[in-house]
Amino acid sequence: MVRLPLTPAEVERGQRLGALLRRARGERSMLETALDARISPETLRKIESGRVATPSFPTIAAVAVVLGLSLDVVWAEISPPESRRERQGSGRDPRAQMAS
């Protein structure tokens, strides 16, 4: 199987994910966190450093659970800034937009 090169956006998202997990882990050891998530410490190290920019969903979910992060928070943090703005919209109540 040939793996396509990552896009710059995927690399940036991986870096944001790594930074988020490092912040959430705080003083907790990488070894303890990885073992609790049932992944290898090397996998967690690679994710946190951005070397694995697109880890599998089950891996992200397992680490998030161990760190007490909701997947909604993880997604909001790693989404590109432009998609965050699109989700926020104009700041108006969506029901008001439907009524107009």
Commentary on this structure:
This protein is mostly helical. The chain has helices at 8-25, 30-37, 41-49, 57-67, 71-78, 81-88, 94-99. Helix 2 packs across helix 3.
In short:
Helix content is 68%, strand content 0%. It is an all-alpha fold and 100 residues long.
> What best-fitting shape do the alpha-carbon axes yield?
globular
How far apart the termini lie comes to 51 Å
Q: What would you report as the Rg, rounded to the nearest angstrom?
A: 16 Å
Largest sheet: none
Relative helix content: 55-70%
Instruction: Give me the secondary-structure category.
Output: mainly alpha
Oligomer: single chain
Total DSSP E strands: 0
H and E order: HHHHHHH
% residues in beta strands: under 5%
Low-confidence stretches: 92-100
Number of helices: 7
Overall mean pLDDT stands at 86
Question: What distinguishing features does this structure have?
Answer:
single chain, mainly alpha
Blueprint (SSEs and pairs):
Elements: H1 8-25, H2 30-37, H3 41-49, H4 57-67, H5 71-78, H6 81-88, H7 94-99
